[in-house]
Write a structure and sequence with these properties.
By secondary structure, the chain is an alpha/beta fold. 58% of the residues lie in helices and 9% in strands. α5 packs across α8. The model has no long low-confidence stretch (mean pLDDT 90).
Length: 311
């Protein structure tokens, strides 16, 4: 957009550099903080190292299923199904008029971004990567609906039944209604499943029972690998709800040796809220019974909090 309006002279505009600093510096500060967390506890989402790889490659880019999955994510979370038709009208109009460039550039560049973060962009648990297209989708839908409304006004009510725009108007009306219904459904479903109430309650219990500066180990239901590649197993929920720091333990590391390593590094508590994971690791259960005391609501309440004995 800058090049289209100012060519390369934008490089001389101090306002642009100030704007860039305002946008980027908070992120730089945050990632420096996140880097310290990784160096201390090993917790990371793998932006550059220590976690899985989000980046795409030819195995994704040459696979038609990749693009079908992207389309499914967009249809479900961005267009709410019904927004596709008015957006298509708006995008075609923007191409014909070469305006607004924001819609054209956004629609072209966002799929490139999806190709860069291909592994996450195609998955149902990576819908947050699609949020960046929402403003462009809203702009295109607005342009499309506005065009239909203007055409219907030009035709006038008496001649509306004989106008080809009547069908377009009816279709867009149905699209808007479908989008509203789909949005309500998706929000209701998302709010019901986003966090289990027991997870929030367990975080509150940890906050109440563990001193502010003491470190914890939190059991994760995710393994270190997914489909043969490294996976982000560090689930932040209980850390967030308890406002505590420590180590995240992947599901395939639930062994006495792994827990003891964290304990030697300073962990004073072990938190597990998954009953199946708890019962499927008898060696770890024996270790905890010998070296710790359960002080939480218990695994039946999906919140076992083990306090290690002093060494």
């Amino acid at each position: 957009l800058l090049v289209a309006r100012h060519r390369l002279s934008f490089l001389k505009m101090w306002q642009i550099w100030v704007f860039a600093a305002i946008c980027l510096l908070p992120g730089v500060v945050w990632y420096l903080h996140a880097r310290n967390l990784y160096l201390t506890y090993g917790n990371t989402f793998g932006v550059l190292s220590g976690g899985d790889s989000k980046f795409g490659n030819f195995s994704y880019w040459l696979n038609p299923l990749f693009y079908l999955r992207l389309a499914a994510r967009e249809t479900e979370w961005i267009f709410a199904a019904g927004g596709i038709l008015p957006f298509a009208i708006g995008f075609i109009l923007a191409l014909r008029r070469r305006h607004p460039l924001l819609l054209i550039f956004g629609t072209i560049t966002t799929p490139i971004y999806y190709m860069i973060v291909a592994r996450y962009a195609e998955e149902h648990w990576g819908v947050q990567y699609h949020l960046y297209f929402a403003p462009f989708a809203a702009l295109g839908i607005g342009i499309g609906l506005n065009w239909v409304v203007l055409k219907l006004r030009q035709v006038g009510w008496p001649d509306l039944r004989r106008s080809p725009y009547a069908l377009a108007g009816a279709a867009c009306g149905v699209s808007v209604l479908a989008a509203l219904i789909w949005t309500v459904y998706m929000y209701q479903t998302s709010l019901n499943r986003q966090y289990r109430r027991s997870t929030i309650a367990c975080g509150a219990q940890v906050n109440a029972l563990v001193a502010k500066d003491e470190l914890i180990i939190v059991s994760s239901e995710t393994a270190t690998t997914r489909n043969g590649v490294p996976s982000d197993y560090q689930e932040p929920n209980i850390f967030f709800f308890s406002d505590r720091y420590g180590w995240s333990l992947p599901s395939d590391w639930h062994t006495p040796e792994r827990v003891e390593t964290c304990r030697q590094a300073g962990a004073l508590y072990f938190v597990i809220d998954n009953k199946t994971l708890y019962e499927n690791n008898p060696a770890l259960l024996n270790y905890l019974q010998e070296n710790a005391t359960q002080i939480g609501p218990g695994i039946e309440a999906e919140c076992a909090i083990f306090q290690f004995a002093e060494q």
